Amino acid sequence: MKKQKIKQTKVVINSKIKNWLLRHTITVFSCVLIIALGITALTYADPVTTTIGENISTNDLSVAGNITSGTWQGSEIQDAYIADDITASNYLPLTGGDLTGDLSTTGSITSGTWQGSAVGTQYGGTGQDWSAIIQGNIPYFSDTGTLSNLAPGTAGQFLKSQGAGADPTWDNVTRSATFVVCANDSLNKTQCDYVCDGVDDQVEIQAAIDALTSGRTNKEKIICIGNFTLGANINLPSYTILELQGSMKAKDSFGYPALIVVSWHSQQWEIHGGEFDGNKANVTANVSGIIVRASTIEMEYHDPFGIIRNVNVKNCTQDGFEISSRRTHLLDCVSVDNNRYGYYVAASDGLYIGCSSILNGDDGFRVEQAHNHFVDCFSDRDSGDGFDIRQHDNVIIGGYAEWVDGVGVKMGVSDAYSTTIKDMRIISNTGYGIYVSSDYNIIDGNRIYDLQGTPTQNWGVYVYNGNKNTISNNNVVDNPNKIYDNGTNTIITHDIGFTTENSGTATLANGTTSITVNHGLDVTPSDGDIIVTPTGAWGAMTKFWVGGYTSTQFTIYADQDPGQNVTFAWKAAAL
Description:
The structure is a single chain. The chain is mainly β and about 575 residues long. Helix content is about 0%, strand content about 35%. The chain has 3 domains: about 1-70, no CATH class; about 180-495, Single-stranded right-handed beta-helix, Pectin lyase-like (Pectate Lyase C-like), CATH 2.160.20; about 500-575. It contains 1 helix and 49 strands. A hairpin with an 8-residue loop joins strand 9 (about 160) and strand 10 (about 170). The longest helix is centred in the middle third of the chain and has 9 residues, at about 200-210.
């Protein structure tokens, strides 16, 4: 047979392929030159097709064209023999297998399901597998900066921050009260133990109080939330705290002595907050806001029987507060527009701090018992006296009495002895600034004035009678009349606007035996109040004396004409 020369065509497949076996038929649509080692069989198919049906062992295979059919059976092709860049006109149809390494591409992934690890927050992901997340989970950043989630809490818990150094957590609402009573208009009743209907709400409130531990010796609390209507008073026993977050108002038919009555002989009780309205426009009975009944129980002296704090009482037909139990403390309370007293103090040893009386129908503070202290309290536009003190050893420090229709501060009965009035402002009252008709009182460091165009506070301090009162260091400049003293042994000293001390010189002329001197005092001096001393030679004079006291002058007398001028230095102290 005639040998046919085979046309050589070079085919390059991917790159150099080393040490692999071809176990398939290779069809080359042209003349083929195969440079290989270990060809064990060769079948010629037609002039342009060569089929290799057996094993081919080769080190290098170069061929041009496409491998269009068959299944790859060799070893995995190493990365070194795979092109780094793949260019496709439309899509790269990869199916199955894993893609590792870095992938840089443009465009959008429009379908499919993510099957890999969670995408970190630095790449816009969450760093978490959220497939198990349920309703109520709360995402948060942990201390490592990863996005974590907090499982849902239980019903009624709240999300609690623990600050920058800790993860948030769920926590339970801690109740500060034994029972919570909600008014009909309370917005949230989920935490309420008792819910009122807006009619005779004292029934539910009293039921809550009565449900507290029987015979308790520690305080338990009732919190009342909302605006309540009372048809009868609420009784507050020992070891009970009543906290009002809202208001309590007497209904039109109310006929009881007060909205709140602290029971007889009660101790260790407290009333906090809220507004108590006596509804005086529609109530005809004598009703006070809060009445504290008397207690004779003996306790340690420093322990209060009860405390009333941040309470506002208004519109009562009687008093705002009626206190008849010893050692009751009132802090930052307000009594406004009640028909009688703002505070009726019928007990001793009370402490009143920052309490105010405004526009009440009689005295702001009516004090019927001893040893009470009033600190930074004030009476403003009350129709009686600002402070009417009727018993001994009471102390008023700071605060003020202004625009009242009576006296700013009055000790008007003999039992009001040993009262201290210090550092007050007493302003533009209708009566006197301070009125005294008792003994041993101290009035010190007060600012007493009336700046009205037509002053009504005629006297700064008026001592009607009394023994050994001390009036010192007050400012009484801006009053029509400064200090009036009709008492005995009154000490008046160092008061601005009221001169009780003065000094100067006077010259007895040659040929005379007396000289009249203006003393400049606001009181009439008496024997011993003015001392005179010659500053030079006496001349023929052998003795001298002082007399002729008037409200404006005194006289220096000589026993004979000195025959020369004699100068005297004088000093007056009418204390």
